[in-house]
Amino acid sequence: MKDQKTLLVEMRTYQPEQGHLAFWWLGQMGFGIKMAGCLLTIDAFLQDHPHRRVPAALDVDEPDFADFVFGTHDHIDHIDRVSWKRIAKASPKTRFVVPEIHRSSVTAELEVSEERVIGIDEDLPFTENGFTIKAIPSAHEFLDTNPVSGLHPHLGFILEAEGMRIYHAGDSCIYEGMQTKLKAFGRFDVMFIPINGRDGVRYRRNLIGNMTAQEAVDLVGTIRPKLAVPGHYEMFAANPGDPDLFADYLDAKYPGIPWWIGEHAVRVDL
User: Which of 199, 151, 195, 188 is nearest to 172 (CA)?
Assistant: First the structure.
């Protein structure tokens, strides 16, 4: 893996052509993405943790960290509040994107102005300079909705700019109507999806699960993105997944849909 400083410099300075994008896998469901001149991270887990098996890919104390830092839901490997507080201090121009239901608590914990934390929900998108952030609910493992506000604590983000479209599922199982919601957006260039699955042993230990590799394949086969990227399978020994099983089943059942499985911190150009 590249060292933290080298990777961040590459992510900052690399400029894909218009209508192109690049991404870097940062471990777990964490990805760095460069599109439309913006550098963003989604679900980057960067704090020191005794159980992590993959070292943090980026130094959160570096200035000019990213334009946007996204978290799909409030688990430490997705909204990494410990790291985010350090990013907020070291990089005063970085803004944070979270489910609207978590916006107030994140703003207070990071000790930043309200303008630096953007709240998103299914009916609450954000657009700036041609860059649009939308969302659909994620079921982790249940399709939770706040009974008062109607807001969702777990989201999948849809990013659109310069004719490109990305779906990052966060943590989610398949639920009724999910495919219909995704199809309504049109063709996706990339889908980032978890594959670690779920079972009773993990659930009893509060390891809330996701779609299995087979379920992820069927979602990809229904939506048919230009590229499918599995995640959430290698960070914690107690919560693994099998990317080779995902790739083999996708090739067998839906031949012709490209997938990417690779090393951390390697740039992928589209």
Answer: 195
Task: Identify whether the C-beta of residue 32 lies closer than 8 Å to the C-beta of residue 9.
Answer: no
User: What DSSP line would sit under 93-115, residue for residue?
Assistant: T-EEEEEGGGHHHHHHHHT--GG
Strands laid side by side in the 21-27 sheet: 117-120, 95-99, 68-70, 38-42, 30-35, 21-27, 267-269
β-pairing, 164-168 vs 190-194, is parallel
Q: How far is CA 115 from CA 64, 105, 118, 121, in A?
A: 17, 14, 7, 17
Q: Confirm if 211 and 199 have CB atoms less than 8 A apart.
A: no
- Residue 31, classed as helix, strand or coil, is strand
The contacts of residue 91 (CB under 8 Å, 6+ apart) are 62, 63, 64, 65, 66
Dist CA 110 CA 89 (whole Å): 8
Residue pLDDT, tens place only, 63-98? 999 999 999 999 999 999 999 999 999 999 999 999
pTM, 2 dp: 0.97
- What ranges in 78-183 are assigned the alpha helix state H? 81-90, 103-110, 178-183
45 closest CA partner among 18, 75, 80, 71: 80
Crossing angle for the helix pair 103-110 and 81-90, to the nearest 10 degrees: 60
Listed residue (115, 90, 99) closest to 42, CA to CA = 99
SS (H, E, C) 201-259: HHHHCCCCCCCEHHHHHHHHHHHCCCCEEEECCCCCCCCCCCHHHHHHHHHHHCCCCCE
CATH code assigned to 4-269: 3.60.15.10
